[in-house]
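We store chain and fold; example below:
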Amino acid sequence: MSQQACLYCGEEFIGKRSDAKFCTSTCKAKYWEEKKSDESATPKLSEGLRGIVDTQPKAPPKPTTIIKTIQVETEVYQKAKVEVEAIQTSVRRLEAQKTALLKQGEEIANRNGGIFYVGGALAGACIADKECKDKGKMLLGAAVGLFGGFIADTWDAKSREADKQKGLQEIAKKIKEIDVCLTSIRPVADKMQTTMNLVPRYETKTIHIPDFSSFLQAYSPKDASLPLLKESKAEPVLQRKAVILPPPQGSEKIISSEALQGMDYAMLDFQGKWNAFFGYPSLNFHCVLTGMSGEGKSTFAIQFASYLAENFGRVLYVSGEEGFSKTFKDKFINNNAVSPDLYVADLRSYDEIVKEILPDTYHFIFIDSLDNMRIDAEKMKQLRERYKESALITISQSTKDGKMRGSYEIVHDCDIGVKVESGVAVTTKYRFKAIGMEMKVFES
């Protein structure tokens, strides 16, 4: 155990651990509370930015509620009506079956054997003379056939009569069963109908109808007229209430989509050709400029730095290739890029950048170039973490086939990718606007 001074009150104490900084938990709590208060009082780097557009979406106007009273059928009446309709359906079905049986019985009762007489006469005539040329023979044959049909019909009459009576008896039995059912059902139907007539049919209910007129007024096009919503006369349908679950208890890194919608983001309000090229980037975007030597990538970067300094905030241009040389000075003068908010730095390595540039000092930092300073993807991540409140615009050289030198991971992690070739800048990657936008670098 070693004796050391408390980081909050200054009193010496012997800590149980070698890295202990506070004598008591009270001093520890007070220290961090005051530190948090001091940090909140310190102005953020973004507070010095100009030309910021708030992207917080306006919450849609909530529809007002119209309270209305309506007449609806009572639950008792609805129940009785359902039972009466079911009984009436049964009665109609039984009556339809009875009617069909009566018709079937009538058809059976009307059957006779006349067809046998006619058939026998015709058969006898054909037997007498197949060609039917001699009328005398025809008459003789018909008489013979008629006599034969009479004998056949007499022989089968008893059998047909027995089948007829049997069929009529079965039909009569079924009709009797239906009559018994109707006799028992009809009084129940009449009783249910009487009950339904006695119970109160309607009751008054209060409903809440959302009024979307304010919502339509806020979101409908100004040059188009929308038809007015007609009030529905249909009775409201009772729906099952949705079960609203409480929010889950878990990590602070997991939020609901509603909380995401309420988050406030700001963006840079680019105008003119810069808006057409870049759109509205975030405050701490990362842009990677690539191109071969002499194609215009540094000129484009200086023009961009000048625009940011004149309209938004403090800019630092790190010259890792040319330093404070005459050619570097001429580029600024030729592009009219002299501004009180535009600073330049002669830094030649990653370590010099970290040492000389303090965090939360510049809103925009240009690094020209990553290749000369040997800044790889890992060092680039560290720079973005160190200057997380600043936008970074880094410049890299391209190979002859147009690819970026070094690790392509830097382009993969950036927000905007711009390739400058033959004096024309083209967006190759963009999270804020469509790619393929072009801008002439040397245009007067």
Summary: Residues 1-32 form one domain. Residues 290 and 419 are 5 Å apart (CA to CA). The chain has three domains: 1-32, 68-198, 270-440.
